[in-house]
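agent> Task received from the user: take the single chain below, predict its 3D structure, and emit structure tokens. No templates, no multimer pairing.
agent> Plan: (1) validate residues, (2) run structure prediction, (3) serialize to tokens, (4) report one or two observations.
agent> Step 1 OK, no nonstandard residues flagged.
tool_call: predict_structure(input=
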Amino acid sequence: MSTDDKNRAVAAAILPLVGGPANISSVAHCMTRLRLGLRDRTLVRDEALKALPSVLGVVEDDTYQIVLGPGTVARVTPEFEALVAEAAVRHTAEDLAAAGAAIKAAQKAKNATPFKLFLRRIANIFVPLIPALIGCGIIAGLNGLLVNLGWLPGITPALAAVASGFMALIAVFVGYNTAREFGGTAILGGAVASVIVFAGVAKIEVFGQTLAPGQGGVLGALGAAVLAVYVEKWCRRRVPESLDVLVTPTLTVLVSGLVTVFGLMYVAGEVSRAVGDFADWLLANAGAGAGLVLGALFLPLVMLGLHQALIPIHTTLIEQQGYTVLLPILAMAGAGQVGAAMAVYVRLPRNGSIRRTIRSALPAGFLGVGEPLIYGVSLPLGRPFVTACVGGAFGGGFVGLFNMLGDKVGSTAIGPSGWALFPLLDGNKGLGETVAIYAGGLLVGYVVGFVATYFFGFGKGLIEEFDVDTETEPESERERERERETAGPITEDPDSSGEPVAAPVKA
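)
tool_result: status=success, residues=507
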């Protein structure tokens, strides 16, 4: 079976288990999850869905999220969308149901907090950029290695250009996605944000300071695009339709562009500089403590889906310093999770079901995909989730301590963690030292997560409840089977109404 056929087969297996095409109101994906809007949640067959080999877990939030893992989700989603689109042609009578679902979704949206919705919007802007960040980050790391070794001098300048091109223009992509997310014309958001990276701004002086191309970075681009959306919507309401095609885009770019040049670039530049300075100060003066806190809190953020809100901070640090020092610390949370899962595996030797789940989810856990272990193991058990956070805290504290001692450990891109982060590591010392510190942090996370879970993750009641043999029948079933064997073979009584009776036992 070809790769395309395999991905289509996965999508085809998932679709009927989530209620079929008529039950799908929206389809999207993030780094690891297929996110579905559902019209009727009761139609989903959760257990059958979790039993699919390609499904690593499910998460319920504002959408129904199926964890497929990095790479896989990006290939399965287009196939899933195609299947839904094909079915939509045959189910146009579902328009009325879709309208009812929209009303239901609007009612549900009223119950969401404004802050959480805002964070999700910010995540929606930056998540689509992650594949490019990863690709360019790995190429940058490879190029740095070749330069240090003195290999392929004729190729390294080209690799540097390939790796740096996206980062040089990332503000444009942020502006484009921001305008689309906030309901404006995407290309106008990109046009306004492009002012930030235009070399000609170096001729402009604002507040006694000459602007620099790229000043304000992604934060400035985000603010410029949001402003462009509001200007565009204002124009749409007031400009006559006959003039709209000319006046609205002109005023949107002009007004938003001038405000960006004479205000937002300077303000966003100061905010970006403050973010970088604070991160450096925090890790230089309280690295171990900061690492403990960040490593402990990251798993709860992942559980709530709020970890995506950190992406603008990571991106800002990458723009300024070439790497983010926060991601390697936060990645230690996944190490604590892996250690906790291994302790659960050891502490529940009779529970074949949980042990199978751990065996299947551990490879993804080592590569930094923590949702299967969170939702399939530690969180349902309760205390192991807390002890996993303890493992993440100590791993984060280990990496933070070395940052405090002057050995910065950073990542040139965002997205991966665990072992998958090794190709993206960078720092202010040699690559070997950077890799050794990060590997040491992972080892600390594994060990502390295991030890904390083994000794403190299980109460007596939890062991009695879960350390049972799930591969054999319950005792009551075995007793009934023994009674049937004692009674002898089952025969049909021709004089009865068809009910089976037990044959007499021979003396």
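agent> Step 4: summary for the user.
The CA atoms of residues 417 and 494 lie 70 Å apart.
agent> Done.
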